[in-house]
Design goal:
By secondary structure, this protein is mostly helical. The chain has a domain of 107 residues. The protein is built from nine helices and no strands.
Length: 161
């Protein structure tokens, strides 16, 4: 019997997948939020209010007594953006599947003219959770035979297979 992945594993999988795309992760997270809002897991206004609440809490934890005076506007905006990203990852991993994030990543990559085959070469299995490894293996299995054979030979020579 296979146990379902824990919430922590799902969150880590999302985080590690997005870490592979440091610039595109902003666009991917926009799409993740769109999915959460469209599927009615979250309301946009409620989400933004939570972002502000959590950002204020982080200011308090960091010892700011008068945040409006002590923290410049650009730092406040950066703080909110980071909290927004963290909440997006959390809610997405809690409500939606890892397969959907793979589809969103593929959508963003396709916008830039990158095919899934090219994206596979960027995968780092040494830091990936098991679920992500299995998902990647399944993606390779679903490739057309010539491409799959190439990947199977490459993985057979690697130190982590």
């Amino acid at each position: 019997m296979t146990l379902p992945p824990s919430a922590t594993d799902r969150l880590l999988s999302v985080y590690l997948a997005l870490a592979q795309y440091p610039i595109l992760s902003s666009r991917i997270r926009d799409l993740m939020r769109r999915e959460l809002f469209n599927r009615k897991f979250l309301e946009s206004n409620d989400f933004e209010q939570e972002v502000i609440r959590k950002a204020i809490q982080s200011q308090e934890r960091e010892g700011l007594q008068r945040p409006q005076i002590e923290e410049p506007a650009e730092v406040w905006e950066r703080r909110k953006a980071r909290v927004r990203d963290q909440l997006t990852d959390f809610y997405f991993s809690h409500h939606l599947s890892f397969e959907l994030i793979e589809e969103l990543i593929e959508e963003v990559l396709n916008e830039r003219g990158v095919t899934t085959h090219e994206a596979l070469s960027e995968f780092n299995p040494e830091v990936a959770p098991q679920e992500m490894l299995f998902n990647q293996g399944m993606m390779i299995e679903n490739l057309p035979q010539p491409s799959a054979s190439t990947w199977n030979r490459a993985f057979g020579r690697s130190k982590w297979c």
